[in-house]
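The material for today's practical consists of a large collection of protein records. An example says more than a description, so a record of this kind follows:
***
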Amino acid sequence: MDANITELDALQRTLNHAIDTFRRELAAAKLPPLSLNATKPHPLDDCTYLPPPRLYEARRLALASIGQLKSLLQFPFEKVVEEAYGVYDQACLDVMIHTGLVECLAGASDRQKGLHVSEIQKALDIDSRKLTIILRYLSTGCWVRETDEGVFTLNRPSLELLQGTNGRRFLSNPHGPGLASALVEWLQHPEWKYSDSVTHTPVQIVHKTDLPIFDWLKTRPDDLFLVAEGIRSFGDAHVRGVIADYPWGSLEGQTVVDCGGGQGSLAVQLAKSFPDLRFIIQDLPEVVVLAKANIDSQLPAAQVEGQVLAETQDFFTPQTRKDMIGPMLTLNIADAAGPKSKLIIIETVSVPGISQGPNTLGPQIMGLDTLNDDAYQPVSPPPFIPANLGGLEETRRIRWIPDHKGVSLAS
C-alpha cells in the first residue's frame, strides 16, 4: 500500500474491499440480499447459523471501516452531541419492549406499511404525540421506519426486540444504565479508586449496599432471573462459534467442567453435539437451580444419566475438580488443575486499540483473501483500523496466568 495514502482513501479502499468480499460470500453461500425493510429475519440473523470465516470477517471489517469513517468525517461537536443523546438509545428501546410497542407494531395487518400513531395510542393508551417523537428518534437508528407521516413499521433489526429473542432477553436486565451512570464516582471514590474488592464497585454506589453483586441479587430473585437471562442470551448468541472453533470431539470420553456455566446453555448444546462427553456446570446456588431447570427442559434424560450435571461452586474458594477440561479460568481453578487438565478460556478480552499507518505494517498480514473455510481466523487490521478489530493480542492479556500459576498457553 502507498505509504502516503490518506486515512480517507485507505478506509474507503478497505470498506470497498470488505463489501465486495461480503457480497461475493453471500452469493457463494446462496443467501438472499440484506434489507433493512425485510419483515422476516435474514438467515444471518439466526444465532444457529454459522457463517463462513471470510463472510464473517468481511462483515466485521466493513463495520470497523464504517465506524472509523464516521468519526473521520463527522464534525467533533456533532459527535459530542450524538454521544450525549446516546443515553436515550436504550431508553427508547425500553419503551419498545416494556410498553408493548414492538408487539403492537408487529401485529399490523400490513407489516410493510405499519400503523399510524393514532392506532397505537388506541391500542396502548399512550399519547400519540409523545410516541411520535420517540418513534422518530428510533427511526434514526434504523429500529423503525416511517412509511408515511405518523405511520411507523418495524425494521429488520427491531425483530430482535420481540418476545423469545436473545436481544429481548439481553435488554431485560434493568441495571445497565444505572451502573454506567456511577462510573465517574467509582473511579474517583477516595477509598476505592485503587481497590479490586467485589464490594467496591458501581453496584454498591447505585444500590446503596455493602453486598457483592451476586449476594445482592440473592435478595432480589426477580432481578437475579433477569440478569441470568441476559447472560444466557449472550452465550446463546455465540454458542455456534464456540462449538465450531474448538475440537471438542478430540476430548472423547472426558469430563468438561463449565466454571461459571450459568444456566448451562453451552454445556447443553455441546452435549447434544458430543454425546460421548460428560459435562459439569458450576455456579452459585441460586443459578444452579436455573441450570437444573434448563437441563431438564432441553435434555430431560441428561441429569438422570449423568451426562450433564449442575453443582454449586464458590469461586472464591479452592476448586475441587481435578483432571478436568474447563471452559473458564480462575486462579482457584489453576491451583486445582491436575497434570491432565486443560483450561479453555472463553471470554471477551480487552485488547489494545492501537491502529497503524500504511508504512508501519509488518509482513505477516492476514487479509480477507487469505482466509479459508477450514478454520476461523481473524483478519489483520488494515491501516487506520484499530488492532482490537480481530482481538490479535489475547495471549498478551492473559500472560500473567502462566507467569503466576505455572501453566502453559496453547493457541
The chain has 19 helices and eight strands. The longest helix spans residues 221-245. The longest strand covers residues 278-283. The CA atoms of residues 203 and 213 lie 6 Å apart.
